[in-house]
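ok so I'm stuck.
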Amino acid sequence: MARFQTLNFLNQSRKWDSLIRSLCLKLKDPEKALLLLRDCLTNLGILPSSFTFHSLIHGFASQGKMDKAIEVLELMIHDKVKYPFGNFVSSCVISGFCKISKPQLALGFFQNAVNSQALRPNIATYTALVGALIQLGRVSEVSDWVSWIESEGLEFDVVFYSSWICGYFREGVFVEALRKHKEMIERGIVPDTVSYTILIDGFSREGYVEKAIGFLEKMKKEGLEPNLVTYTAIMLGFCKKGKLDEAYALFKMVENLGIEVDEFMYVTLIDGFCTSGDIDCVFGLLEDMEKKRISPSIVTYNSIINGLCKAGRTPEADDFSKGIDGDTVTFSTLLHGYIEEENVIGILETKRRFEEAGVCMDLVMCNTHIKALLMVGALEDAYAFYKGMSGKDLVADSVTYCTLINGYCIVGRIDEALEIFDEFRDTSISSVSCYKCMIYGLCKNSMVDMAIEVFMELSEKGLELVSGTYTSLIKSSFKEHGADGVLKFIHRIENLEPEVFDIVSNSAICFLCKRGFPLDACEIFMRMRNKGSVVISRSYYSILKGLISDNQKGLGWPTLNTFVKEYGIDEPWVSKALVSYMCMKDVDKALFFLANTQNASAVAFPVSVLKVLTKKGRILDAYKLVISAEGNLPVMELVDYSIMVHALCKEGYLDKALDLCALVKKKGITLNIYAYNSVIYGLCHQGCLVQAFRLFDSLEKIDLVPSEITYAILIDSLCKEGYLLDAKQLFEKMVTKGFNPNVRVYNSLIDGYCKLGNMEEALNLLIDLKARCMNPDEFTVSALINGYCQKGDMEGALGFFFEFKKSDILPDFLGFMYLVRGLCAKGRLEEAWGILREMLQTRSVLELINKVDTETETELVESIISLCEQRSIQEAVTLLNKVGSILFPLGRRRRAQSIAEKEEKIHEGEAICAVSSKCSSLNCQTDLDGRLSNVKKVEKEVDDYYNFEKGCRLPDFESYYSLIASLCSRGEVLEANRMTKLMLFDMGTGG
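replied:
not stuck anymore, here's the structure
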């Protein structure tokens, strides 16, 4: 009887076991299975088997319902049951916690189970443990556990190694992943399809699809068949590389192989087309899915929505989302899209939609929601939402705090930002980003001192030093207090960790040198040297380069000596610094050094050396460097070459300017109009007007449009040579071409007509100048005064002087001298004395005289004023004439006047020309300093022209004759006549 009852009880127990396991395993309803289990234990007095408990724990864990899984586990180990739990249960619980992203709980469960001796782990449990460590970002600790596992005598399997390799891929340590794969093979563990798929997926996700394909081929050679997941991983790699044609071809190949494509493969391809912005293909794939009766899930729809948002089509994504039941990812994506587009209405509408939908928010959506609220200016709502996160069982992370701090800082509400920052500091979160946001916010609101305190706290906590953080502090300190502010910042951080101090100090040195404060950078350098800090080679070089630019070479030599001692001559920065200093001291020695330096091609002197040499008037040294050290040239822009060409032409070295132009074209750099202007100026400056106009006429053939400066240079030169008719025609052509002549162009013409005594034409030009709403300047006044004085009309000259004086326009030095000498010649000494007094009170005149004072080390101004007070007019004029001869030496004067003019008039006229030339030169330089644009390649005939020019100094009779004959044959008599006059003039001069 007892035996029958026992059998009956066992039969009933088996029925309940079967029923509970069926609900759990087959129907996937562990909730109902748990109700039956409780009923068995509480009401029926039936104890199901341990396998039933295991099934329930596995069922809940696989669904991520870990609270229920733990409840079943507690029932299993209760005193009424006392079933032991082994590795299967432990693996299920650990994996379950990892599934819900709570690896810390998984690790805690494992440690408690081992410490209580309730568990003796096997390789499956250890594999689950590896998954938890990987989620925690502690993959490096797996090696320690491997040693423990080996001491336990357990055998590793392919699943363990696959999990471990996956962890290294997750951390981005590809080399170590490959090393573990090799180690697995060396242990005699045969890779399977899953292990190869992990390798393929790891490399594909990082865009190394070629490497992934290599493993695919190796896998096939070993007799393993790739599955759908393997091919999907390869497809992901193609999409990451933007190779969508290859990805689609692979997709078709999988279909042809008879493998049933799933939604995930479609999503991968859809995401690839979304990234490329090909939305039409995306919707085509969606239609294809529906034809194959693959029901798109929210994952597919979210991928499409994300693609539309990334393409800047958030409103379309919003419309698309209205046809589906969105989740947190859907609304987070839409919010982020509207935030990026700064669409306030879209943000508010999306907010209303997800609130109505009652979507359960996760942390990502909460952070996006906070950012959206800050975007629309609802700061109080954002703060209230943040405070209410605990009620949603959510804990703020570093992104939450960064978003809030940044939002408050942007609108200048620093006090609230600091309060949130303090709340962040009270948490256990370790985030450089939060400190960075706070430092940026304080710097932006001119609170540098407090920002430095936050930076010091960041450093003291041992957090990673981000370059943007300390560079922001250096810039803000400089902005508020100049170089002294940067020095103060460096002083405050002097007691931080040596590594931190060194990094920030080196950055500060480079910053100060770049801003033109090398002496302050030297102060930081000396402080670093005293502390025994490491000064990087770039800092040394920055200091030396800055001292060169600041003309402090004497201070640079000790620094250069230290630099060479610390880093040696082979260090590229040392070689560059040595070359820079040698270039400034002796170009020949620098070239010798370069010629005898090993690996000299790696050493290039900086462009700044050429700029300094040019600025100091050592253009020939700069030229020698560029021509002789061609293999060591730095990367030079067209503007750098153009400045040198201009300087060479200005100083009269036309040969060298043309050589430099040839070098530029040889390097494949196309000359622009600004470079041609310099060459034209050089030709005109040397009196080669024929060649200048030939070059001017050739510009159209190389698709270059002459600029206003081109016309200004040529008009000025024609006026100086006395060809007023040609100058006027060129002036009219300039206006016809749509150019607006400036005051300097008018000055050239007015000056030319005044010298010829044609005051009527000069005055007409003055009227035209005023009609164009331009004001005459000191050169205009001086030219007109000179014209009246040459005619002996002192009343007219004085009339113009006083008329322009009412408009605060006074003549220049030469204009005053014309007037004074003219009055003296007429015996009107009293009026001359008055003009002299006016002259000596004019700032521009005093600056010129003081310049002569400096050059001759005399006190001219005092002497001239003294003579005027004594009414010694003639003596004062004689002294001023000497000043004029120093300012405008005879060697620099042009042969502009006719042979018949008097010597005194030649002197006066040449001086005016020199001033006007200076004016054109300055104008041309200003033009060069502007933005330079590229033009089409110079055609061969212009190259031939350059070759011709190099050999041509003074044109001979044959070249003139052939040109004039050509003009006559074409009937261009006026042009031939002009060339004849030029020929006669040049032939006379050449003799």
